[in-house]
Amino acid sequence: MTEPALLSVKNVSVDLPTPRGNLRAVDQIDLNIGAGRTLGIVGESGCGKTMLSRAILQLLPKKAKLSGRVMFDGQDLVRLDPERLRKLRGRSLAVVFQDPMTSLNPVLTIGTQLIETLQEHLELDSVAAKWRSVELLGAVGIPAPQQRLMQYPHQLSGGMRQRVAIAIALSCEPKLLIADEPTTALDVTIQAQILDLLAREQRRRHMAMILITHDLGVVAGRTDDVAVMYAGRVVERAPTPVLFKKMHMPYTEALLAAIPKIDAAPHAPLPAISGRPPDPTRPIQGCSFSPRCRYAAGRCYREKPLLAASESPDHQYACFHPIQVTAGVCA
Amino acid sequence: MMQETQQSQRDPLLKVQNLVVEYAVGGKTVHAVSDVSLQVARGETLGLVGESGCGKSTLGCAVLQLSQAVSGRVLFDGHDLTAMHGDTLRRMRQRVQLIFQDPIASLNPRRRIGEIIAEPLVISGVKDPKKRQKLVCEVLSAVGLDPSLVIGRLPHEFSGGQCQRICIARALVLNPEFIICDEPVSALDVSIRAQILNLLEDMKARFGLTLLFIAHDLAVVKAVSDRVAVMYLGRLCEVGPSEQLFAHPAHPYTALLIEAIPVPDPDVRPAESVPVGEPPSPIAPPSGCRFRTRCPRADQRCIDEVPELRPVAPDQYVACHHPLIAAG
Ligand SMILES: Nc1ncnc2c1ncn2[C@@H]1O[C@H](COP(=O)(O)OP(=O)(O)OP(=O)(O)O)[C@@H](O)[C@H]1O
Ligand SMILES: Nc1ncnc2c1ncn2[C@@H]1O[C@H](COP(=O)(O)OP(=O)(O)OP(=O)(O)O)[C@@H](O)[C@H]1O
Ligand code: SF4
Ligand code: SF4
Ligand SMILES: [Mg+2]
Ligand SMILES: [Mg+2]
To answer: How many contacts (CB atoms, under 8 Å) link A and B?
Structure first.
């Protein structure tokens, strides 16, 4: 990438002290995302997706220890003072969580929350802020937005609440939106509508977006690049079409195979991944996927494979025995 | 009206007839299940899908007489469960078991796994502790857990996937004929989900089970079901053989559900979904067809008349005035 990235995560690790010992939730992650691009982050529950997004936002639990750098728009967020950080988070860096109630205040009306955000960050007067709120609620597909301003979050359905959370996140025209499983708690029909809404707004505003999910199906048609995470690390990263056509990591392959396919015959056995992810307080020697990997052999049990480029520099993977690699190209 | 003609004529183990279940909430009535009829043949898996709140769990509970039906009948192996009480009902119920969505919450946190699985045996009168122990060990091995490592431990020491295995073991220990699986994999990760679905399929074959498999994920339902029933806001929309239903959905709602499934293939650009809005409240369901407020095909007739379930293809039935496939 010649253009400097909008966000660049450099060697970021997150450690959490737990009664069972130190838990490394995020392990030496490097990631870049350019302005206006979309990045999907995919992985099983507990692999560190939320901790990574919290590390980017500087919203980690108090006891967490962060190392590395998070460069956003020319500034290192890790070293930014709290006041500037707070301004940045409301303005150019926005987030939508899985549970919209995490970002909404239950005792304030939708209108108050939107208007306050707009007034604080865009310095609009109250009439302009109200007018803009109605416009935003309309844009995220909320019928009768005028009346909704008066309602409290609990008076809305889950899908509507997520739309409001998105409206608030978009209200200050952020440069980057982090959406952490924005549709996992919603029904399929609502899920499709919310994902479309995010994609539409992302394109329209030329905003960069990180879409976090455990479902490879969700990122397939909706992102430019995908990073697959396992046990706190990025284990494969590629432009989305490349990843799906020619994945190199056995874990990516297994994750895709395990999804029930709509065109599969009924009662066809699913290729499940045996076992489960390692306990993050008990680091595994060698490749952390080795206990579950059907290609594991020799070196996999002794050394940790590092993320390295394949034939093309923008496709990287961490594996000693990659699949579908053209002979001779890879060491 | 009774749909006696409905569905496979093969020996039905479960027959639900015109079932109505309502809840009273603050002086209002929630129409949770409205006039639903369906059958499950011996040895088959019937999948039941629909959005959150459409009445799937209520239907499952009503089959077990855990929620009180306003009207309608539930026939199990020819016996009307709605007319049974006390010991007769209890004995009948042992032949039907239930597996829940949240495996961890459905296990008593203070009891050891061995006791949890033996409990149904105690209740059903297996007095000999040795015999109980033997049955518990057998069933734990069957679900892929090592009895010696598991029996003495507490639920919190296990992952979600392992807890679901334990729940399945508990459901199997009385050797039931019929299992209602209420979203057994919804709370699990993709990888663990596949393990549990495979396990359910194995257990079904091994113990000759009949399953009612409830889920909101169509792809999951298709993976395990012979036939699929689609519910919307308390009513049945469509029922038919899995492959037929997915290849040729007749109800506009079934088509919408299929379209909304994310496909793990970047070449399949998701079609910009039609802004179909959200389901209305079951306290005041729309007149006529309950799907009409979100249906692109709705017309005056859909407002005036409740569509009855009728055949459109062999073994496929739809409740719609303007189905996507013409009756053959
Ligand atoms: N507040 C916390 N204190 C200690 N450990 C935590 C805390 N929050 C999360 N963890 C642990 O950190 C690891 C990473 O968790 P994280 O929430 O980032 O996973 P995730 O990929 O977002 O999973 P999910 O898909 O379930 O949301 C897990 O092992 C989790 O148990
Ligand atoms: N005990 C109850 N009292 C009052 N209303 C109830 C009760 N149980 C369920 N309901 C309501 O009845 C309707 C059907 O609920 P049910 O739980 O059967 O739906 P479901 O299809 O299983 O949904 P989900 O996918 O969320 O589990 C919903 O509107 C629900 O709010
Ligand atoms: S390094 Fe070895 S164990 Fe790890 S994914 Fe590759 S083949 Fe499997
Ligand atoms: S009956 Fe009418 S509203 Fe209902 S699904 Fe059919 S066309 Fe749509
Ligand atoms: Mg998370
Ligand atoms: Mg339910």
So the answer is: 139
